[in-house]
């Protein structure tokens, strides 16, 4: 595939498809030698789908929770999770909501978005959370631990649903790589740039995606602060770092990188924190931006 010639313009760097914050951005774009890519919604489509719902072995707490009679335990856990996720813009939240279509969702209060960790809200005054396994509220039993490990090993993303301080179940979601990601990343590598995959998701899911798109270096299981630290660590080693991301969890890293590139399909917070916005949300635009900056400034590295 050939990237469409997206950009035109004079010193102001006006172009089609790549929105630039200011003219000085071109210089930092030219100097970039490392491209750090967020996984979910950046390398992948972020259109996640639920592939499995596993309920904890001892579900006596479900019956004492006053959950709607008649529905199965799986449906109860799914309905709680979807109710809590209804306040979230995250691909995981949208996947859980879609899977729960047709179920009656309880009303929620006091919603909190835990960026890079999950979501929390109250249902009938009881705290319910949907989070990464590392942020789970309560003890994860052996059975669910195994389900979490299996999902990660298969490249999927397990999240834990907790009710009060008891782990109620695990929901597994899976994502797909964008059709253009592998070719665009191969081109970045050909241009002498080093790609790094950076994600808050688990190591197994991260490696799976990295293998599919040809990235060797993976930094997984990091919180939003960890993304900033990863960028700083690369900079400390003398790298000039471009960070590409889409989420609330990427905003601080996008702002601290030498060049921040936001997916146009991403959150407003990510776009505001970035120097460049890639309208299409396609990684070919990263190739185009760097190629244009090198050409315009007359230095081909
Ligand atoms: P990424 O870096 O791949 O974009 P995030 O930093 O957004 O991932 O999320 C990291 C992890 O936090 C997810 O893999 C998931 O386990 C958990 N998480 C984030 N948001 C949610 C959510 N809305 N519901 C459940 N879990 C979430
Ligand atoms: Mg993301």
TrEMBL record:
Cellular localisation: Cell membrane
Protein family membership: Belongs to the cation transport ATPase (P-type) (TC 3.A.3) family. Type IB subfamily.
Organism domain of life: Bacteria
Organism (species): Gordonia humi
Name of the molecule in the record: Cation-transporting P-type ATPase B
Lineage, top ranks: Bacteria, Bacillati, Actinomycetota, Actinomycetes, Mycobacteriales
